[in-house]
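Tutorial handout. Part one gives the primary structure; part two gives the three-dimensional structure as tokens.
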Amino acid sequence: MASRQSAFTRAAPDERRQSLIEATARCLAERGAAGVSVRTICAEAGVSPGLLRHYFAGVSDAIAEAYRWTGARVATALADAVEAAGPDPRSRLLAYLTASFRPPIADPELLATWIAFWSLTRSDPAIGQVHQEIYRDFRHGIEVLVGEWRPGTDPRLPAVALTALIDGLWLELSLGQAPFTPEEAERLVELWLDGLLA
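Part two.
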């Protein structure tokens, strides 16, 4: 976890906005959605109270941007895993699916942040919209990779099924003390994948 800044600091506007986004994510991980306020976010970012409203319409807007930022970090980790897998289409798909079982995605702090986001998806339409975008993009990534490996296959339902499998295994691993190892989770995904798309 990044350390808190102990005093107010001056920074470029883009840096200040980004520090507020990251502070919002940390507050969500530590306090949950109910514990996040303008004051807690600004204190976490080391900026004067009220500066949040200069960059965001309010706490909900800051949370939505923190959700987008967190989703982008996960997407980058997935893309890096696919790139490292090399040119084989099956290996690339497996890399995309199993990257969730290793850091930086399999992380208790990230889980706490996701839970806070999820808790708001039904009560806050803007956050619900960001949630839909992130999961749509994740499923689309699976669909593209399925199409590369199995051209002509309708990838929609396999992507839905694989997303559900990944979410469940990721959740158990991130909670800690899962009754399986990350390697066993990867093997389960491989068996499921081959069963779905054999």
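Part three, for discussion. Residues 120 and 127 are 7 Å apart (CA to CA). Residues 58-197 form a domain with the Tetracycline Repressor; domain 2 fold (CATH 1.10.357.10).
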